[in-house]
Structure formats: C-alpha cells, structure tokens
Amino acid sequence: MLSFLNAKRTAPPKNDSASVPPILTLPAELLMKIASCVPDGHSYYGYPVESANLVSLSFVSRLMRVIAIPLLYCQIPITSEHQLNLLCMAPAKLLESVQCVQLNI
Questions:
Q1: How many structural domains compose the chain?
Q2: Beta carbons within 10 angstroms of residue 90's beta carbon
Q3: Which pTM was predicted?
C-alpha cells in the first residue's frame, strides 16, 4: 500500500535533530497506528463527516501527509450529485485509497 513502509528509517543527522520533531523519528508503522487513532468518524453514522483533525495532521510534514491521505480517502460519503462529480475529477493517486463510497443522493 505505502511503499515508504518498506524503506529503512534512519535517524536525523545530529546537527539537525533540534529541527525534527521527535515523533517524526518513529518508524512509519507506528506513525500509521497513531494516525489511525485520530477521531474522524461521525459518532452515530460511523462514516467520516469532519476530517479537520486528519487534514491538520497531514500538514505536519510530507511523511505525515503520505500517512494521512489513505485515512482521509478510505470512506467517502456522497450526498449530492455535485460531490459525485468532484469525486470523478479527483486524481487517480488519491482514488487508490478509496475503499468505500456511500451514495446517499
């Protein structure tokens, strides 16, 4: 799924370690577990309706963006024809992460 998971993680150079947040030195597998714990679903219906937390996490770094994108796009509720049209125009790279589309039109 995410090719970066197979790559070896190396510690940041000693002179730059002050500029790298300690959490980003964790292995990618742990970062994925952390990101998957970010609450992002509707409390009653269960599907994502507000993704502000994961979106914020995706802005932390390039690595966190790569980790957050599959979580942001795994379930997509469609409640209007406009949303369906937007989904059809989404880049193929993002659509690779879609596991479920819920149509409620």
A1: 1
A2: 12
A3: 0.66
